[in-house]
UniProtKB/TrEMBL annotation:
<protein>
    <submittedName>
        <fullName>Helicase SNF2</fullName>
    </submittedName>
</protein>
<dbReference type="InterPro" id="IPR000330">
    <property type="entry name" value="SNF2_N"/>
</dbReference>
<dbReference type="GO" id="GO:0004386">
    <property type="term" value="F:helicase activity"/>
</dbReference>
<keyword id="KW-0347">Helicase</keyword>
<keyword id="KW-0378">Hydrolase</keyword>
<dbReference type="Pfam" id="PF00176">
    <property type="entry name" value="SNF2-rel_dom"/>
</dbReference>
<keyword id="KW-0067">ATP-binding</keyword>
<feature type="domain" description="Helicase ATP-binding">
    <location>
        <begin position="291"/>
        <end position="450"/>
    </location>
</feature>
<dbReference type="GO" id="GO:0016787">
    <property type="term" value="F:hydrolase activity"/>
</dbReference>
<dbReference type="InterPro" id="IPR049730">
    <property type="entry name" value="SNF2/RAD54-like_C"/>
</dbReference>
<keyword id="KW-0547">Nucleotide-binding</keyword>
<dbReference type="InterPro" id="IPR038718">
    <property type="entry name" value="SNF2-like_sf"/>
</dbReference>
<dbReference type="InterPro" id="IPR001650">
    <property type="entry name" value="Helicase_C-like"/>
</dbReference>
<dbReference type="Pfam" id="PF00271">
    <property type="entry name" value="Helicase_C"/>
</dbReference>
<feature type="domain" description="Helicase C-terminal">
    <location>
        <begin position="535"/>
        <end position="707"/>
    </location>
</feature>
<dbReference type="InterPro" id="IPR014001">
    <property type="entry name" value="Helicase_ATP-bd"/>
</dbReference>
<dbReference type="GO" id="GO:0005524">
    <property type="term" value="F:ATP binding"/>
</dbReference>
Amino acid sequence: MGRSERETVARGGRLYEAAQALAGDHARAVEAVREALAPIHDDLARRELDVIPVARLKDVTEGRLRLGEVEKGGFRTVGQVLDAGPYRLRQLPGVGQQTADQTVAAARRIADAVRDTIAVHIDVDRPEPRTTALVMALGVLVEAGPEARRAVDAAGALSGRLGPLLAEAGPVAGRLRMLFAGQAKRERALAAAAEIRALTEQADRDGVPELLAQASVDLLRHPESEPAALVDFELRSAEYYGLLAEVCGRAPDPAAAEGFLPDEVAERVRTQTLDDTHRRVSLRGYQAFGTRFALAQRRTILGDEMGLGKTIQAIAALAHLAAAGQSHFLVVSPASVLINWTREIEKRSTLRVTPLHGPDRREAFTDWKDRGGVAVTTFDALRGFPAPGGGELGMLVVDEAHYVKNPDTLRSRTVSAWAGTCDRVLFLTGTPMENRVEEFRSLVRILRPDLAESVDDHDSVAGSKAFRRAVAPVYLRRNQQDVLTELPALQHTDEWEEPSAADEEAYREAVRAGNFMAMRRAAYARPERSAKLDRLREIAGEAAENGLKVVVFSGFRDVLRAVRDALTDAQGGAAGTSQAPGRLFGPISGSVPPARRQQLVDDFAAAPGHAVLLAQIEAGGVGLNMQAASVVILCEPQLKPTVEHQAVARAHRMGQVRSVHVHRLLCTGGVDERLVRLLENKSRLFDAYARRSAVAESTPDAVDISDLALARRIVEEEQARLGTTPAEPATEQA
């Protein structure tokens, strides 16, 4: 025994202290959230209890309580009974000890039930000190991200192992202690020191000390200001709400979160491990289960309702397999979402991503084959690549899998050939399969031919839960109302599209003319070949399949006319769409009288099932409540953050009972990219928060000198980028 053992124990002690310190930092961050939440939660619960009549106490006691004298005494609500307590109730004539105690006990049971069901909604339109404090406390955990969670888990594991070992190795710390220890104790101390050395060396190799240190720094960091916290919440509200539900222990019904799978399948999925080494995003409980399902069942269909994060679950599965040693993955999607897949993989993981699209796709394919990572391609481009040999591909992900429902198409045959070479295949579709049994069989034949023939039409007739039990080995679907326990979150998705040749031509003409407004709507100038309209039809089609209502906003009347024509064609059964017939309302524009605008909104809300409302953003974005909608489509980015914010707020407001998913349609390489960068500039967003006023919010379409200067600068920069000769600027209105 010598210096080496003492240094080993000292290193183990420092690592243990760092782990303990991180655990403390994380516990304090969590406690700060709970402390900020408590007064809000208590106030909401109190409001509920103050409107629940005393008569409801009979329900809790199955009618055994006699409440006549309590009501005669002036107690009308459960809240008043709780305030009074048993002592004051006993002062009422005819109310004895037993009745008073039972009445208060029943009131407490109702209060507990109310507290369990209370969901906190954070309204960024009307921030107040308590909700702002909650956002700032949550922001610490959100900003720390999944790396902090990984560090906390590592800290817990290290503490659990190092604590007992350090106690056992105590004699090693000093020569006298070692000298006076018995033989058996010395041997145990030396063995513990050897284990400590192995643990610390492995921790060094894994970078654990640095991970713990960075996580502690992140958990001690606070938002720069209240406006900064509110801006970040608005941009990442789903992450905030997810963490809030987790901290409060508010989980969805386990059976619903697991898609009502049979116990034997659910148990197999639960035991599937999940490695988050290559992942940059935290998963909600149901998302982690969906990822485990894809991994445990190997060849599956994830059919979650839109807005529940199918893309994130797929990326999490790829990240897990990469950590397990797999090197090559392929995502196949419609062209309209290829760019989004590329950006999401870069943002949500550390995986290398290679788009296989465009004229250089063959060179990109060769590069991917050599270097690995995630290749992202389209259904059409996939036909031009040779399918790999068995075992080369770690997982094949097929987005919008209902595109391959027809087995006779070349697209379906190509996907089937690739799936045949791969052990793991994940189909993603937001289209519910319960009422499309033959389509479902077609997809299952690609994944599990043996299972396809066992799917019975009668299973779907028996209801969605019966259908899901019958197809449990391959199909998982969850609905928003089953798994989102908090009040609706606002989910933003930037839908980046690569402009078509026709879009490019229209854009160049607008740039050459120096027409800024025409540049902004050039993506709709050739409707029959518009990349944005193609994506809009897909989003509306998926919403139709799920019975969701959609609001489409644009600043331009002619864009709304193009949208109306495109959706009318889609409802007529245009090729490549699966949109069920719905009703189109609007457009609401500045020329529509206010009373007529409200009537359109009312008719839209009253329409059963899926419907679409078209609105010019200046006219529809103020004063009208559109909370019947749970999907919002912005046809182009706006010049002012407040314009988009107010338009979205028409749907995402109190009274909305579903999550609101906002899709902003954007084209790469032009004016949209420049405007998005400006909209993401935090100083401008802070200014928007700081200057909120009734006058400013009533005139979101106001254009000041800076906006005109901005438009001129963008026009000049685009003319230079495209090398076009400026013409006389056109003065064209929306």
